[in-house]
Amino acid sequence: ICLQCGGRTLDRTACRVASHLDVSRGVINQRSQLPTLEAAYASILRGLGENLEREGLLKTPGRAAKAMQFFTKGYQESIEDVLHNAVFNEDHDEVVIVKDIDMFSLCEHHLIPFYGKVHIGYLPNKKVVGLSKLARYVIQERLTKQIAAAITEALKPAGVAVVIEATHMCMVMRGVQKMNSKTVTSTMLGAFREDLKTREEFLTLTKF
Description:
Blueprint: H1 12-47, H2 60-71, H3 79-83, E1 87-89, E2 96-107, E3 113-123, E4 127-129, E5 137-138, H4 140-155, E6 159-168, H5 169-172, E7 183-190, H6 191-194, H7 196-205
Parallel strand pairs: 2-5
Antiparallel strand pairs: 1-4, 2-3, 3-6, 6-7
């Protein structure tokens, strides 16, 4: 079994080469998109009445374009990219909880960041995993469901629970201007939805 992709193959070198090519394509695609993104940021700044020849803005469109690519790099990743080599066979059958995972993303409504903590619990079914994070344009409600669905796809667990508590800069900086407000969303699947005791154990241990 190839440790890189999980598939059955005798040629692990070929698998590594294929993986490297996929990464290279992603880098090439990002580079090819940079001029379009730079032009878009330049247009935004002109629309705001800024002078692009001003010293402080000379390299801003390029910097902003690269920053946006970094913020949205999750679009270049699949669940296999994130979890490869991180799924292990294990007979553990008690709830596993990972708390206080730092996260950030961009609200798709305003393209303004939100950030906070993710708390994840799952009931293993012969497999456990080390977790990473995804960065995409999302609304928080969708991100919560996406994380739960990704873990379900990778592990086939008996249940998954995900809670996100986040500060939305679109609320803090504009509109309602709620400086200390947090938005909490949750998704419960399998045993966490169907079994009250399992759900309460997760919520108690994560202090919700």
